[in-house]
Design goal:
Elements lengths: L2 H6 L3 H33 L2 H37 L3 H36 L4 H21 L2 H10 L3 H25 L4 H24 L14 H74 L3 H28 L1 H6 L7 H15 L5 H13 L3 H22 L5 H36 L7
């Protein structure tokens, strides 16, 4: 099935199963190596290493943030250009975006490599705790120029209709990363740096595999002689800003949380926070995979003026996101002990008790998290980047910091409740923004040409 037939002709529900479910599986597969990362480090290197991994991980995400800004930001104008029949413009945006990602990987890698000791010292980490965190981050920094393009390439494959290929690539990346990590940590008995190396090797291999079809000219998007322009760069940055701001704001919040956790509960509290983040790292990719996989179809139909079809596609995303999110809430609330034990190598009763209580409070997050997530994805797909950015920054930074102050008297309990309270406030904000934008979409639908029926 060619791209135009899939995006414009396939019934919305069938399109969802063709595109979103493989996309969700793809993102879940890519999340599994992160889950394996935490489990393997926690069990084979120890609690201090696991705490150090979680202290460093926000900076790992920041390492990918600029590349993600360009990858996500370019996917929207590429999809719209293809929907409007401007194939050459789409190829140029694609080529320029790849060059921008490579350059950003060099920049962030150099900065994080040299800044790592200072960053962790400022957060209050000392001794082996800080040393492990520096080792872990520096491996990602060195590999940054090659690894950072892998997630953008995943977006470009889906735009070209290679949804199953994207899914298989992410599954391969997870298998390779987990295999390398297991070999390095369990068989060779190497340290925490080897966990980062295993993941980076898996990413680099898959990045090369993903780019080969584009280089050979076998896909809809092709490399061409790049022609940069200020309007094009502005559009890429504008469309990528919501995701970028969410990454940066979320990591700043994580860094702030880690600073508070080090002071309130030491390494144990940081480790518990890490368990919550690994649980979220398993659930959120499912939501992201479903919504993000439908963005090319939404953008394509938006560019083609098929506005009522856009609404039908988004209804599928909203429904599926709600089902996944509510199911996750139930599992985390009912089985917190089993989830926590995945990341523990011993029988530390205090550690386990803190993790169980934190997971049950954290599970409440997913009662409402799905709504703001789906609405933000929809707004981004139809080039409402400012509105999506407002939701993104509020969810990732403004609401959590505000709630840290409000819930401070509750101590660690207040920090665990922060996530659920943030989700409620984000849902209210997202619904209010969506109601305002719905009127604009209805007017656009009425003004659409009768020659473009659904």
């Amino acid at each position: 099935m060619d791209q135009q037939t899939m995006f414009l002709k396939t019934p919305p529900v069938k399109l969802f199963f063709l595109a979103a479910l493989p996309g969700a599986v793809s993102m879940l597969a890519s999340a599994l190596y992160q889950l394996a990362d935490g489990i393997l480090v926690g069990r084979f290197v120890g609690e201090t290493a696991f705490a150090a991994l979680n202290l460093a991980f926000p900076f790992v995400i920041i390492n990918f943030a600029l590349a993600d800004l360009v990858g996500v930001g370019s996917a929207v104008p590429i999809s719209i250009a293809l929907g409007q029949g401007r194939d050459r413009d789409a190829d140029n945006i694609f080529t320029c975006a790849c060059l921008m990602i490579f350059g950003s990987g060099i920049l962030t890698g150099v900065l994080l490599f040299f800044a790592a000791p200072f960053l962790f010292s400022m957060m209050g980490a000392e001794g082996l705790f800080a040393e492990y965190a520096v080792q872990y981050l520096r491996v990602y920094a060195v590999c940054s120029p090659v690894t950072t393009i892998v997630f953008a390439a995943d977006n470009y494959l889906r735009i070209c209709g290679k949804i199953r290929g994207s899914m298989c690539l992410n599954i391969l990346m997870s298998v390779l990363s987990a295999g390398f990590e297991f070999t390095f940590l369990y068989i060779f008995k190497w340290g925490i740096w080897a966990a980062a190396l295993g993941t980076c090797l898996g990413m680099m291999i898959c990045a090369v595999i993903a780019l080969i079809p584009f280089a050979l000219g076998k896909l809809k998007l092709r490399f061409c002689h790049p022609s940069f322009s200020l309007p094009m760069v502005r559009k890429i940055i504008g469309c990528g800003c919501p995701n970028f701001l969410n990454n940066i704001a979320g990591r700043l919040t994580s860094i702030l949380m880690n600073i508070l956790l080090v002071r309130l509960g030491g390494e144990t509290a940081v480790s518990v926070y890490g368990i919550l983040m690994y649980a979220d790292g398993f659930i959120q990719p499912l939501l992201y995979g479903m919504c993000d996989s439908m963005q090319p179809a939404v953008g394509y139909n938006w560019g083609a003026g098929r506005f009522s079809r856009v609404r039908a596609i988004e209804k599928c995303c909203f429904t599926a996101s709600a089902v996944v999110s509510l199911t996750a809430a139930a599992v985390l609330f009912c089985f917190p002990r089993q989830v926590a034990m995945l990341f523990m190598s011993g029988g530390n009763a205090a550690y386990l008790a803190m993790a169980v209580g934190a997971l049950q409070l954290f599970s409440l997050t997913y009662l409402t998290r799905w709504s703001s997530f789906a609405i933000q994805s929809y707004l981004l797909a139809v080039e409402k980047s400012l509105q999506a950015s407002i939701i993104s920054v509020s969810t990732a930074l403004f609401f959590p910091v505000l709630l840290i102050l409000i819930l401070w008297p509750l101590g660690l309990t207040g920090l665990w409740l922060n996530f659920a309270a943030t989700a409620v406030l984000a849902a209210v904000l997202a619904v209010l923004i969506l109601r305002r934008e719905r009127a604009d979409l209805s007017r656009a639908d009425l003004s659409a040409s009768p020659a473009s029926p659904d």
